[in-house]
Design brief:
Layout (H helix, E strand, L loop, with lengths): L1 H16 L4 H4 L1 H18 L4 H10 L2 H34 L2 H30 L10 E6 L9 E2 L8 H10 L3 E14 L6 E8 L3 H5 L5 E2 L15 E4 L1 H6 L11 E4 L2 E8 L15 E4 L10 E2 L2 E6 L5 H18 L7 H8 L3 E5 L6 H38 L1 H9 L4 H38 L14 H27 L3 H5 L14 H33 L9 E7 L10 H13 L4 E7 L10 E6 L2 E10 L3 H4 L6 E2 L13 E5 H8 L8 E4 L9 E8 L14 E5 L9 E8 L2 H15 L4 E6 H7 L2 H35 L1 H9 L4 H30 L15 H27 L3 H6 L2
Parallel strand pairs: 2-10, 4-9, 6-8, 16-21, 18-20
Antiparallel strand pairs: 1-11, 1-12, 3-4, 3-11, 5-8, 6-9, 7-8, 13-22, 13-23, 14-22, 15-16, 15-19, 17-20, 18-21, 19-20
Length: about 900
């Protein structure tokens, strides 16, 4: 109360200091007349018009001072009126606590939802990296979008090979500093009991070029990467040092066991530095050491640098383009066909902005977040429509008040200002509460984005962009729900408003046209949101219920790394078979098999093939006998792999139906041969097709089934010191614990990673789950708002036409006729809204095409379902006021006014 009284008395205090008079209001005219007279006198004395005007202006210092004082008084008068209007609006809203609470909560939810989604967009897409001068940071990539499937791509940010990186570092002139880095996961602790951690491998210039300084100890330097792998030094992030290492002092004995190797922790990165991947964080930074054998076709590094002063991205790109022929000639890949090598030599390097870092989160969710922002904006628009209807109802109820004030001399602009000030107070309160709501919703969204295998790490903060967005949303909502009611109130004609008999006449129905238009618009927007909600929910359901052609339940994945076992390379395949036999002996295991590619998790290996005269591509996977039985895939013809398919026997293969259609034209495949084109460590090989399996999903449950070829694991040409197993059991969790115990007992040095297959598949649907969840929520909220809006408008119209309805009943109208009259009113608005909404849905659906699975944006069943749901809402919302209208007592209605 004290604050309100102080605000209300400020204009009175200002008025006591600056009292305006008629002379002050006429000061502009006086200044202009005086200036004209001075100019005429000076021209008469012989000065030119330009000289006369300049001299007159110099002589008017006192008048200009008085003019400035007048401007100050006008400015104070405006502030005075504004403060008075805001105080009046606050008092008016305090007198209507129910209306104020509903309005503020509606706006807070709408503004809060929009602000929360914008906060995520701002953090993922708009915010620069927390480093000095981030605008100088650029990334070097192959122009044109990558390697076109050539070579081996490792990690989400691998763009260049190590030989290319060395050539860029040795010959570039565009950067004041350049570095390379890669990301991945490591195991910290004992092999079978360690914890998973996120790691980045960085060149020695990484921290220096970024301008990052150590929180404790020192960071990695160029001399730290000179040694051979594995490196012996490491830097940890501040959060990892504090959370997993206890935050103690670093010393020479502070070491971590990383992937079986001891690493000395020499420093701690500063708080807030998460690396260069937005949405992720690194735990451990390791030197980018030099392996004994460097493959030229492994694209695993991201290369970045700072532009030299005066250099632009275009100039740097031109410089690297000129160096590209020499770089790609010096690093030419080997072991490929001449055509592939020539394609590699034609690659060109280019420079791209990197001030905002890189992000798989940005790539995956960018379009989804923008679409969600548009959806939440429509929900906020619907809330504004409801408030506009409420404000119009209040304006109609206050017509006599406005008429009296106009009759007593109040100006229409002043009445308009007061109404808008009331709306402004509501919008400001809604925005303030909405910012608080946004913090909770943002963290809930982060939880929805995170999965068991991928924890999203984003710093959500209310910075100037977020505040500006919230204030802009408040201003737009104020204009959306406040202008029309304020204009209607300001246009009130005193004589008509004071006419007590005109309130309930049938002719007054034309005054409800604005409400009708708003409700039709609200129904149209509701239809768009409901169609979107049904599309995304049905799309997610399609993904969840799709049959990938293989077993999902009861299957677990075990990845075992035996680099520390000192197994000779020529015994890798034999040792993998030994581990498989040990896993199969574990109680509870129904079946187990090895594979070089875990299905449905994004990995892919493609080789060029020749089948007769036909040439094309096929994915390749090498599996052990029993793989198809373990995964529940039955053979259509031919035989399965067996123990006789060894490394010394003839090469055999099993293909899928798509392979038969694409490369054999549907002919009988058994006995046909498949020639593979050579790649490094994968020499040209001839496989005989011995079996056919049905089409199954391969690397992505959403994608089309490619031509697939399976070969025996014993015939894999490039065995590695690791093995991936698919394990079938009735209780994967308990079985995997037994597997871990068995492996740890026999091979304590083996690194073991375990996952439940179905859980990983669900994690891969996080985007669709988010869209289904949020669009469904917004769709239900839209339906609720449409119900409230339609109910409110129909109730208001019934109340305003009470006299008319009473007359109709007195003249013999039956209750059913009255109900029909009101229901027809709602029906026409429904028809108009659905017609407009259908067109908008067809247009808006195009933006969601890439996010849908198994549906088209113009799915007729979805559109029909949304229309039916809106029809039910309209009937339910209008029946209650219609039933109330039918029960009006004519005597009571005609007695009013």
């Amino acid at each position: 109360m004290g604050v309100e009284r102080w605000i209300y008395t400020v204009p009175l205090r200002l008025r006591s200091i600056f009292r305006r008079s008629r002379a002050e209001r006429e000061l502009d005219d006086e200044i202009r007349d005086h200036l004209d007279r001075q100019i005429e006198e000076l021209i008469a004395r012989g000065l030119s018009p330009k000289e006369a005007r300049y001299a007159a202006l110099r002589a008017m210092g006192g008048m200009e001072q008085r003019k400035e004082e007048c401007r100050d008084m006008r400015r104070v008068s405006f502030i005075e009126d504004l403060v008075q209007d805001l105080a009046y609006g606050a008092r008016t809203l305090r007198g209507r606590p129910g209306f104020t609470a509903v309005a503020v909560l509606s706006l807070a939810l709408g503004i809060g939802a929009n602000t929360a989604i914008f906060q995520l967009l701002e953090a993922v897409r708009l915010r620069n990296l927390p480093i000095p001068s981030p605008q100088e940071l650029v990334e070097v990539k192959i122009a044109g979008g990558g390697t076109h499937g050539m070579g081996v791509n490792q990690g989400p940010y691998g763009q260049l090979t190590r030989p290319i990186w060395r050539e860029i570092r040795d010959h570039q002139q565009a950067f004041s500093g350049v570095f390379a880095w890669a990301s991945g996961q490591v195991r910290v602790g004992q092999p079978t009991e360690g914890r998973r951690a996120r790691a980045i491998w960085v060149s020695g210039e990484f921290f220096q070029v970024l301008g990052v300084h150590a929180w404790s100890g020192r960071l990695l330097l160029p001399e730290d990467e000179t040694g051979a792998c594995p490196a012996s030094k490491a830097v940890v992030s501040h959060s990892y040092w504090k959370g997993s290492m206890g935050g103690g002092d670093l010393g020479g004995d502070t070491k971590l066991l990383v992937n079986g190797d001891l690493e000395e922790v020499i420093g701690v990165a500063p708080p807030g530095f998460f690396g260069l991947a937005v949405g992720e964080r690194f735990d451990i930074a390791l030197p980018l050491c030099q392996p004994k054998e460097v493959r030229r076709d492994v694209f695993d590094l991201a290369v970045m640098g700072r532009l030299r002063p005066g250099w632009t991205i275009e100039r740097a790109s031109a410089r690297l383009d000129a160096l590209s022929p020499g770089i790609f000639s010096a690093t030419a890949i080997t072991g490929y066909s001449p055509e592939t090598i020539e394609t590699y030599r034609r690659f060109r390097l280019a420079v791209y902005p990197a001030a905002r870092g890189v992000s798989t989160l940005r790539t995956t969710y960018d379009s989804s977040l923008w679409l969600l922002l548009a959806i939440s904006g429509l929900v906020l628009l619907m809330a504004c429509v409801n408030l506009a209807n409420l404000m119009m109802a209040r304006a109609s109820a206050r017509e006599r008040e406005m008429a009296v004030r106009l009759a007593l001399g109040a100006s229409r602009p002043r009445l308009l200002g007061q109404m808008l000030a009331e709306c402004g107070v509501l919008a400001a309160m809604g925005a303030a509460l909405g910012i608080a709501v946004a913090q909770l919703l943002s963290r809930a969204l982060l939880g929805a984005l995170s999965t068991e295998s991928w924890l999203v790490s984003l710093r959500i903060e209310t910075n100037w962009r977020v505040l500006l967005f919230a204030l802009g949303a408040a201003a737009l909502t104020c204009a959306a729900f406040g202008v029309a009611p304020a204009l209607r109130a300001a246009r009130t004609e005193p004589i008509i408003a004071m006419n007590v008999g005109g309130r309930g006449l049938t002719a007054a129905r034309g005054r409800f046209s604005m409400q009708r238009m708003l409700i039709a618009a609200q129904i149209a927007v509701s239809l768009v949101l409901l169609v979107g909600a049904l599309l995304f929910v049905r799309s997610f359901r399609n993904l969840m219920t799709i049959d990938p052609g293989m077993r999902q339940d009861g299957v677990a994945i075990a990845v075992m790394g035996f680099e520390q076992s000192q197994v000779p390379r020529d015994r890798y395949a034999e040792f993998q078979g030994q581990l498989l036999d040990e896993v199969r002996s574990v109680p509870g295991v129904l079946g187990a098999a090895t594979t070089t590619n875990v299905p449905l998790l994004g990995g892919v290996w493609v080789l060029g093939v020749e089948v007769g005269a036909a040439r094309g591509l096929s994915t390749f996977t090498w599996v052990s006998p029993g793989y198809f039985e373990t995964m529940g895939i039955h053979l259509l013809m031919g035989r399965d792999f067996n123990q006789n398919d060894s490394g010394t026997s003839s090469r055999v293969a099993i293909v899928n139906q798509t392979f038969v259609r694409q490369h054999l034209g549907g002919a009988d495949p058994l006995g046909k041969t498949v020639h593979t084109r050579p790649e490094p460590n994968y020499p040209s090989t001839v496989y005989e097709i011995v079996g056919v399996i049905p089409d199954t999903k391969y690397n992505d449950i959403r994608g089309e089934t490619p031509a697939m070829t399976f070969a025996p694991a014993a015939q894999f040409p490039d065995p590695a010191p690791w093995v991936a197993m698919m394990i079938h059991s009735k209780a994967p969790g308990m079985t995997m614990a037994s597997v871990r115990g068995t492996i740890a007992k026999k091979h304590s040095e083996i690194l073991l990673e375990q996952e439940v297959f179905q859980a990983l598949i669900r994690d891969g649907m996080a985007r669709e789950r988010l869209m289904a969840m949020l669009s469904g929520f917004f769709g239900l909220l839209a339906a609720l708002l449409a119900t409230m809006g339609l109910y409110g408008v129909i109730s208001f119209m019934v109340a305003r036409r009470r006299n008319e309805i009473g007359i109709r009943v007195a003249l013999g109208a039956r209750r059913g006729q009255v109900v029909g009259m009101v229901m027809r009113e709602a029906g026409w608005q429904l028809v108009i809204g659905v017609a407009i909404g259908t067109g908008l849905s067809l247009i808006a659906g195009r933006s969601a095409r890439s996010l849908l699975f198994g549906l088209t944006p113009h799915d007729p069943l979805t559109l029909a379902g949304a229309c039916a749901l809106l029809a039910v809402i309209a009937v339910g919302a209008s029946f209650v006021p219609a039933h109330r209208a039918a029960r009006i007592d004519p005597m009571v209605a005609l007695r009013q006014d």
